[in-house]
Amino acid sequence: KQEVTQIPAALSVPEGENLVLNCSFTDSAIYNLQWFRQDPGKGLTSLLLIQSSQREQTSGRLNASLDKSSGRSTLYIAASQPGDSATYLCAVTIAGTALIFGKGTTLSVSS
Amino acid sequence: DTGVSQDPRHKITKRGQNVTFRCDPISEHNRLYWYRQTLGQGPEFLTYFQNEAQLEKSRLLSDRFSAERPKGSFSTLEIQRTEQGDSAMYLCASSNRDGERGNGYTFGSGTRLTVV
């Protein structure tokens, strides 16, 4: 059974700091991995999608990497801002199933 | 296209009442998913449709829950005889057929259900 784990569960950093969020999954036979952002009480906003054949994706200050063989992905946020404060969710898809999510990392960036 | 729309945004209901939520997916997406999310947890899969066919249901979907997608466009999720444990955020997502291999999933803003 595929399980997705995100570490840390919560993270507090001062504005301007670079940070890394971690995601691990138990079954390496994934089709893709997607990172989402969720603001309190809101739905999910897609940040980055990495296909299984790719190693990384970048969008602005965000960079996501994927290492299928080790079952890991990282989300790197450069020069963090208070507006980055949110919960970040990692999710994977494998054959015949819908998205399987981790519990998320709640990020707080102080000014 | 304005993305995935969910209605209502918030619903407060008394225990034992029935509630119905609606989801309008991205028009060119033929797959539609329902998820439930409780506080501090990631979204949990409930069920999904390909066009009008309901292809998979989670064991979380008790017999009090029913979902439909009658014309392969919008979908409804009904909860009968609501219980306090049903209080959660109900999220809808859509993708194309190759969403799992292709462009991923797009989520709506969710419906927050509170059962009092």
Summarize the structure.
The complex is a heterodimer of chains A (111) and B (116). With 111 residues, chain A is mostly beta strands.
Description:
The complex is a heterodimer of chains A (111) and B (116). Chain A is built from no helices and 11 strands. Chain A is mainly β and 111 residues long. In chain A, the strands form 2 sheets. In chain A, strands 2, 4, 5, 9, 10 and 11 form a 6-stranded mixed sheet that branches. A 5-stranded antiparallel sheet of chain A has the order 1-3-8-7-6, with no helix packed on it. In chain A, a hairpin with a 5-residue loop joins strand 4 (30-38) and strand 5. The model of chain A has no long low-confidence stretch (mean pLDDT 93). With 116 residues, chain B is an all-beta fold. Chain B has no helices and 11 strands. Chain B is globular and about 40 Å long. Chain B starts with a strand and ends with a strand. The model of chain B has no long low-confidence stretch (mean pLDDT 91). The interface between A and B is medium-sized, with 26 and 26 residues.
Let me know the average pLDDT of chain A.
93
Mean pLDDT of chain B: 91
Uncertain runs of chain A: none
Structural class of chain A: mainly beta
- What is the tally of helical segments of chain B? 0
Q: Strand count, sense and closure of the main sheet of chain B?
A: 7 strands, mixed
Number of helices of chain A: 0
Radius of gyration of chain B: 13 Å
Helix content of chain B: under 10%
User: Which oligomeric form is depicted?
Assistant: heterodimer
**Annotation, overall tally of beta strands of chain A:** 11
What pair of chains forms the biggest interface? A-B, 26 and 26 residues
Terminus-to-terminus distance of chain A? 41 Å
Strand content of chain A: over 45%
Q: Helical percent range of chain A?
A: under 10%
Order of helices and strands of chain A: EEEEEEEEEEE
What sort of overall outline of chain A do the alpha carbons produce when their principal axes are compared? Answer: globular
Could you describe the largest sheet of chain A, including whether it forms a barrel?
A: 6 strands, mixed
